[in-house]
Design the sequence.
């Protein structure tokens, strides 16, 4: 029985999808820079979730958005003397290359914010019509947070209207509590050529409304799982829930899953600290992509992971050991019995994954399974069962053990 930790309820809940197809919306990259390894920890977790659901027999439709309209992207494009499209097309290409490098399976849909402006306008109009949005003095359209009583329920923060303060949440992050937020931003000179002429006026969408529009178009107003990093809980996902309630009267997702941050050698990753790494940085330093992926899976997604270079080297050795055993099993022609080893490993692996996708425990099962097969020479049937077990593990973790 698969159980997932729902940020909304703060409990592990039995996974019971709404319909025949599991609808998953995963917050994808903001394509104005290279994705860093903290981003990829979340993307890898999302990938494993989809793989495991399919292994369990579920049909899955996964949507992963590409954020190609936002303040930082516009500012970066202006500084680099590029159009927004030129900038975002380049970093989108880079992102898809990095996905391939890490053997991440494609989402079923990769919607772009720039392609969903009509849907954004319609949702905003619904919120205005239902009294959840208004036009500000600056011409922008704002969400009226005071109209949504459950605002703050996802992040478990108690809000006071008109107040602005900083509160530390359970993740140890500073969380800014603010009031109303922009759905449609009225045009300003720094926006340059980034604007749309619409019935709401000349301008562009806010970041939060983009996800409401893309998820609704491709998954409907109610789906199963919404995923992102813990930094998305507030205000982004809180605002997405508010928007969908304002437009459609319901929370868009049944389960909300959030992946925790990375530490780098025991310190918070930041450019100022000189420990900010992209996937390409690490590959350029000589580390193998699958070793990077392995290390990012060594702890449950709900635990903070300390990413170390010693850990990378150890991950590389563990993959090598497993691949050596796989090659040995391919050539096996002995008489040793592996039935108990195989049965135990499969059971323990699935139990770990059923427990809120605990990839740390699942990897430990893989390592112990590898160790238990040292010096064993099964017959052809035992060899086939052993290899099938490795294939099962690899189909879920995506480590390329048979490539």
Sequence:
């Amino acid at each position: 029985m698969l159980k997932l930790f729902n940020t909304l309820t703060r409990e592990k809940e039995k996974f019971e999808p709404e319909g025949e197809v599991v609808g998953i919306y995963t917050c994808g990259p903001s394509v104005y820079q290279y994705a860093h390894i903290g981003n990829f920890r979340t993307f890898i977790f999302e990938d494993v979730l989809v793989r495991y659901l399919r292994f369990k027999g579920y049909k899955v439709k996964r949507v992963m958005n590409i954020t190609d309209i936002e303040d930082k992207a516009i500012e970066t494009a202006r500084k680099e003397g590029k159009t927004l499209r030129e900038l975002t097309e380049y970093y989108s290409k880079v992102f898809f290359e990095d996905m391939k490098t890490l053997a991440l399976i494609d989402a079923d849909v990769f919607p772009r914010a720039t392609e969903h402006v009509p849907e954004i306008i319609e949702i905003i109009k619904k919120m205005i019509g239902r009294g959840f949005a208004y036009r500000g003095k600056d011409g922008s359209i704002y969400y009226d947070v005071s109209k949504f009583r459950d605002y703050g329920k996802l992040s478990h923060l108690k809000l006071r209207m008109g107040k602005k303060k900083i509160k530390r949440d359970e993740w140890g992050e500073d969380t800014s509590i603010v009031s109303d937020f922009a759905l449609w931003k009225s045009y300003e000179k720094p926006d340059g050529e980034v604007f749309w002429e619409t019935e709401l006026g000349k301008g562009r969408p806010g970041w939060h409304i983009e996800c409401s529009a893309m998820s609704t178009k491709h998954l409907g107003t109610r789906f199963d799982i919404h995923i992102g990093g813990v930094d998305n809980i507030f205000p982004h996902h809180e605002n997405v829930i508010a928007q969908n309630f304002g437009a459609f009267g319901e929370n868009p997702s049944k389960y909300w899953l959030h992946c925790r941050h990375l530490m780098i050698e025991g310190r918070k990753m930041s450019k100022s600290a000189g420990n900010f790494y992209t996937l390409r940085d690490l590959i350029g330093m000589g580390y193998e992509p699958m070793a990077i992926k392995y290390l990012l899976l060594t702890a449950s997604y709900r635990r903070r992971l300390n990413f170390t270079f010693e850990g990378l080297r150890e991950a590389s050795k563990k993959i090598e050991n497993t691949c050596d055993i796989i090659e040995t099993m391919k050539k096996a022609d002995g008489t040793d019995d592996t039935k108990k080893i195989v049965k135990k490993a499969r059971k323990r692996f699935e139990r770990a994954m059923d427990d809120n996708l605990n990839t740390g425990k699942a990897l430990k099962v893989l390592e112990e399974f590898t160790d238990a097969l040292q010096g064993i020479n099964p017959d052809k049937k035992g060899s086939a069962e052993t290899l099938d077990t490795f294939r099962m593990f690899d189909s879920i973790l995506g480590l390329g053990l048979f490539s």
Summary: The longest strand covers residues 223-229. Residues 264-397 form a domain with the Isoleucyl-tRNA Synthetase; Domain 1 fold (CATH 1.10.730.10).
